[in-house]
């Protein structure tokens, strides 16, 4: 009955709601910009000379080991500090989201972001640089918690999946824009890195202005006892007067959620395990595909292969373009072919690409010297086939699946868990990749392929399909039908009476 009701909700995609999506999605762009910008900047000579002179020295030494020239803990800290800050901030952000609302949380995100851009762009000492990155990180933590929630709460029910992937799309656009800007600023005689880091203020300012214009979401208003305002907001967003059915659903959902005083406790009960496990492990897997080794360090990686600085940045632009393009495939296919098929197909493609990259490098890239031109081009193509398959599978699914497998009472708590797992794993990759590259050399690609193999098996045996299943029916139609997960629901009655 709920499904029928849901499908009968009155709604139109009004220009107003469309602008709200776009403005809020700038939060995704902010996140993507950060992911993409640091790799290019850490490859720039002027930046290295000013803040990391030892790395610069090492880079200049012709005889120096290819795989180790960027191995520097402080340099990695420059990239990774953001994710630790984001991790810590996301706990405060989830509180801010429920106590103050999504809109003020987005406003705070943009403020931190602008402050981060000012500190990094104006940095004269290493501490300013790292402090700026931490401010960026707090912005990302607040933004990543509030923006996906905001987007899905104001999306008409039948567009929820596609709108969810809009966030991922803007992340990929942010990465691409950052790569393009790095390509441009690397040609500047001086201060290119300052422009790259400082320009992060632009999406920050757009989001800041946007958050003054966008509406608060109806569920957030209802949650905080502002029912009248919630109804008015829903009417404005939907562009119709009669929003009774949907409004009632929101009120019921909020009441249900309020009854669960300790969502985290409920999450850790036996019946909460399948969703918690899947949404956490999917984030671990997403990061251990090795995607961010490429997103953060593509320019550095391409220099390792022997490309000149500008050719490396150009190659990073190419992978960025592939990333954006392939995300559209996901938007189109996710509700048609389903999550599982996309993930499985991609696991095969990613596995082949990583093994091939590893094989070429192990046999042809020695500690010194570089790859010959033809082989280097093959590696770039392989990186593209890897990125492409990630972009239509583990990238968007990492965010989509956790948002649709929790029951209403534990959804925000469960999602917060997924976000923080993502940040921890992103931090680990950002902090460790360059050292791993130095110690494991080209074998690092085999390390990632082994993970991809495990991920494929996980999809085959443990991941249920959620395509076309209304969220409130996931328990009956997904978990209780699955050969492995149904066992966790056997003692359910006993458990609730406990
Ligand atoms: C991931 C990021 C990654 C990006 C690449 C996102 O889904 O969470 O870590 O850099 O995809 O497009």
From TrEMBL:
SUPFAM superfamilies: MFS general substrate transporter. Pfam families: Sugar_tr (PF00083). It is found in: Membrane. One of its GO terms (molecular function) is symporter activity. It is a multi-pass membrane protein. InterPro entries: MFS_dom (IPR020846), MFS_STP/MST-like_plant (IPR044778), MFS_sugar_transport-like (IPR005828), MFS_trans_sf (IPR036259), STP/PLT_plant (IPR045262), Sugar/inositol_transpt (IPR003663), Sugar_transporter_CS (IPR005829). Keywords: Membrane, Sugar transport, Symport, Transmembrane, Transmembrane helix, Transport. The chain crosses the membrane at residues 16-35, 74-93, 105-124, 130-151, 163-181, 193-214, 275-300, 312-335, 374-394, 415-437, 443-463. Its main location: membrane. It comes from the Eukaryota. One of its GO terms (cellular component) is membrane. Residues 20-467 form the Major facilitator superfamily (MFS) profile domain. The keyword Cytoplasm does not apply. The keyword Metal-binding does not apply. Belongs to the major facilitator superfamily. Phosphate:H(+) symporter (TC 2.A.1.9) family. This is Sugar transport protein 8.
